Each structure stands twice: as structure tokens, then as C-alpha cells.
TrEMBL record:
One of its GO terms (biological process) is peptidoglycan biosynthetic process. Activated by phosphorylation. This is Phosphoglucosamine mutase. Its EC number is 5.4.2.10. One of its GO terms (molecular function) is phosphomannomutase activity. CDD domains: GlmM. The keyword Cytoplasm does not apply. Residues 3-136, 160-257, 261-367 form the Alpha-D-phosphohexomutase alpha/beta/alpha domain.
Length: 445
């Protein structure tokens, strides 16, 4: 289904450039409101919850969305700065019609976006997004004055979500005795994540918790974990937790300052779950490290790859009835805990494994060594199809034969730039680099 505005994670772009402009966002609110109103059953108006991250543009876009929904006759609840997964949870818990998040996740502050959650706390189905896009093609109007929507603030949003996060941690465990550095990326979890870990007993040191509207993800958080590694070492902490701007990604750091990515954290979670019962399978993406696939196979756990993007990971998890999945970037899903990826909830699952076993992250991941990956980006002309390039296809097949079951090749086109991304994974780092460059050299042949 081709969509004009919605991508894999809502509508996103540079602020002030279509479609992230106040006039379009107001119309988006109106269109979404009309679709929700048509789907509403029973009495009363539809009600949506709006949350945002800490970007300065959030004020403008929040006001535009609110106006659009009100014009469509939809009531609005405003949560203020809140993690994306918090809006998913609160929408479901409060029995609302939909949730809306104003965020561009891990992108810089100049960007922003709008993403929607259904009443069940899931990303909107394609059919609903298509219906909203169809409504965007119609002129914007306004319901009669006695039918206009109203807005009110949800004052206890943070407290409700903090309690939810804590409820996903085992009752018989606590975090006493741990010193944890929490990096909130100057983002939406700055006033939430430290409280969750502190209330479970940890001594918490906060960094990346001074948002000013312009510093989200800048040098802090899951996209820049070196700041966390330095803080953990300098404070002699036991562990570090890095979230991204809307707190749906997670990376972790051990006491030595070693960074653990989403693949390794997913391995820890699966391994821990196997101690309390069987784990049928787990889902990764095309970019998931091959070492994880090999490790799961040796553990008797099925493994499936989805397209890159937590939306696609979730789709495969639901198709197969599995509850654990994730990406190396730090999007991790535990469907028996939450309906969507949640950095805080995922961190608590890893911490429960540490506390239950009395081991460090290094010890829990000692039996998995990620294969070195080399990624080469090659500029190409618009519309370039590498599969129609005989020299590149032949070289790729030759490399795959040479690697056998000791590595793999992944070639994909960038979704945003005229680039071909050539990734080679092998047990030997030098070999991966040589082979990636061999394939890349054939692009323009």
C-alpha cells in the first residue's frame, strides 16, 4: 500500500519543511480526528492523548494538532513531555480512542514527527493510516460550535507511567546495592527514567537530563553512548543505561565502560527467560548480528529476521506468536510486558537477569562474541538496482561462497539517500572489510 505521508514510524521530517509545518499538522489532526470519529462506537466523543519529546518545535506542533482535533469534534488530553511507549501505555490504560506522539526519536532537534497509537497501544494499522491520508485530500472544515472538542491536561501522566514501568520488574527483586548512571539523552524520559530505577532501590546518577529544546540526542543517549561509558567509569558505577530522545531505544554499559548493543541485550533477555520456561523463538532484523542467530540455534531457539524497523519486528513476532525481539540499534520488544518497544522496561528486564544470577553483563554475554561487521556506503544514481548489475551480483555470489557459514552479505538501498549499503559480516574483521570493498568496487563497473 503506497502512502504519501506515513513512513514506517509515522510522519517525520525537518521542521518548517512540508509536511512538518503547522498548517499541515493541524490538517493532519483534523483528518485523523474525522477518521476516529467515524470509527467511534457507543456514546461520547472520541478522546486522544497527545505527548511529545523535548524539542522546541513540540510546542508549535502540539498546538496545531490540538486545533485540528478540536475542529473535528475530538477531545484532547495533553500529557506534555513523555516517552513514546508511555503514550502507548496510557492510551490503553485510560481507554482512549488513540494516542499521538510528537517526536523524531533519535534524530536531531531540527527534525520532528507525528506518530499514532491505536486504542490498544499498537501502531496504527496500514488501513487506518491510509484512511487518514485519504481524509487529508479533502478540504478542512469545522464541526458546529456545540460539537467542538475540548482539551485538558493529564497532570499525573508521569506518575502513572513510572508505576507501570516498576510493575514489569519482578516483585521478589530490587535494585539495592547497584549504582546506575541513567542517560536520558536530554529527551522525553529526563523526568521519569531516574525515578523508576531509584524507586526500585538503586543509587541513580543522572546525565543527559537537562533538556533546553535544542540539545535532544546531542552528544548523549543511545546514539552517543561514549558519554555514558565515561560517566560510568568516572563515577565507579555498576552499570549505565542509555535511552534515546523518545526513550524507545536502549543501550547499556558495564562497570568497565564496555557498551552493549541491542543484539547482546536481546540475547541476555532470551537466556534469562529460558531459566523459567521455554522460549520458542525470537525476532531480529536483516541487520542483526549473525553471532546471535548461531547462539540461538545452539540454544534450541528459533530465529527469524524481519525488515529493518521495530514495526516490522513486531509484525513478525505477532505472526509467529513470539514475545521477544529487537534490533541492534536498541529497539527491544517484550510483548508480555508492553505492546511496543520501551527502553526503560527493556532495561528492567536486563537488570532482573543481572540480579537473579548475581552476574555482570560481561559474564552473561561471555558465550556470545559478535561478528565484526563492515558497512560501505556507495553513492549511486537514482533508481539504481544492484540486482541488475551482473558484475556486482557475481562478486556478491563469490563472496558468499567464500564465507560459507562463517559470515554473510547484506546489500540494501538507502530509503532516504541515493546510496547502496554493502554490509559484510565475518568472524575475521579484516576479511569482512576486504570483502565489503570487493563488492562495493563493482557498483560502478
Amino acid at each position: 500500500m503506497t502512502r504519501k505521508y506515513f513512513g514506517t514510524d509515522g510522519v517525520r521530517g525537518r521542521v518548517g519543511v512540508a509536511p512538518i509545518t503547522p498548517d499541515f499538522v493541524m490538517k493532519l489532526g483534523y483528518a485523523a480526528g474525522k477518521v476516529l470519529a467515524q470509527a467511534k462506537s457507543g456514546g461520547g466523543k472520541p478522546t486522544v492523548l497527545i505527548g511529545k519529546d523535548t524539542r522546541v518545535s513540540g510546542y508549535m506542533l502540539e498546538a496545531a494538532l490540538e486545533a485540528g482535533f478540536a475542529a473535528a469534534g475530538v477531545d484532547v488530553m495533553l500529557a506534555g513531555p513523555m516517552p513514546t511507549p508511555a503514550i502507548a501505555y496510557l492510551t490503553r490504560a485510560l481507554r482512549l480512542s488513540a494516542g499521538v506522539v510528537i517526536s523524531a526519536s533519535h534524530n536531531p532537534y531540527e527534525d520532528n514527527g507525528i506518530k499514532f497509537f491505536s486504542a490498544q497501544g499498537n501502531k496504527l494499522p496500514d488501513t487506518v493510516e491510509t484512511a487518514i491520508e485519504d481524509a487529508l485530500e479533502l478540504p478542512m472544515a469545522c464541526v458546529a460550535s456545540d460539537k467542538l472538542g475540548k482539551a485538558r491536561r493529564l497532570d499525573d501522566a508521569a506518575g502513572r507511567y513510572i508505576e507501570f514501568c516498576k510493575s514489569t520488574f519482578p516483585n521478589e527483586l530490587d535494585l539495592r546495592g547497584l549504582t546506575i548512571v541513567v542517560d536520558s539523552a536530554h529527551g522525553a524520559a529526563y523526568h521519569i527514567a531516574p525515578h523508576v530505577f531509584h524507586e526500585l532501590g538503586a543509587e541513580v546518577i543522572s546525565i543527559g537530563n537537562q533538556p533546553n529544546g535544542f540539545n535532544i540526542n546531542a552528544g548523549f543517549g543511545a546514539t552517543a553512548p561514549d558519554a555514558l561509558a565515561l560517566a560510568v567509569r568516572s563515577n565507579r558505577a555498576d552499570i549505565g543505561i542509555a535511552l534515546d530522545g523518545d526513550a524507545d531505544r536502549l543501550l547499556m554499559v558495564d562497570a568497565r565502560g564496555r557498551i552493549y548493543n541491542g543484539d547482546e541485550l536481546l540475547y541476555v533477555m532470551v537466556k534469562d527467560r529460558m531459566k523459567t520456561g521455554p522460549v520458542k523463538g525470537a525476532v531480529g532484523t536483516l541487520m542483526t548480528n549473525m553471532a546471535l542467530e548461531v547462539a540461538f540455534r545452539n540454544m534450541g531457539v528459533e530465529f527469524a529476521r524481519a525488515k529493518v524497523g521495530d514495526r516490522y519486528v513486531l509484525e513478525v513476532m505477532k505472526e509467529r506468536g513470539w514475545i521477544l525481539g529487537g534490533e541492534g540499534s536498541g529497539h527491544l520488544l517484550c510483548l508480555d510486558k508492553h505492546t511496543t518497544g520501551d527502553g526503560i522496561v527493556s532495561a528492567l528486564q536486563v537488570l532482573s537477569a543481572l540480579k537473579r544470577d548475581g552476574e555482570t553483563l560481561a559474564q552473561l554475554t561471555a558465550d556470545i562474541a559478535l561478528y565484526p561487521q563492515t558497512l560501505v556506503n556507495v553513492k549511486v544514481s537514482a533508481g539504481f538496482d544492484w540486482q541488475k548489475n551482473p558484475a556486482m551480483v557475481a562478486e556478491t555470489e563469490a563472496v558468499e561462497r567464500e564465507l560459507g557459514d562463517t559470515g554473510r552479505v547484506l546489500i540494501r538501498a538507502s530509503g532516504t539517500e541515493p546510496l547502496i549499503r554493502v554490509m559484510v559480516e565475518a568472524k575475521d574483521a579484516d576479511l569482512a572489510q576486504v570483502m565489503a570493498r570487493r563488492i562495493a568496487a563493482k557498483v560502478n563497473s
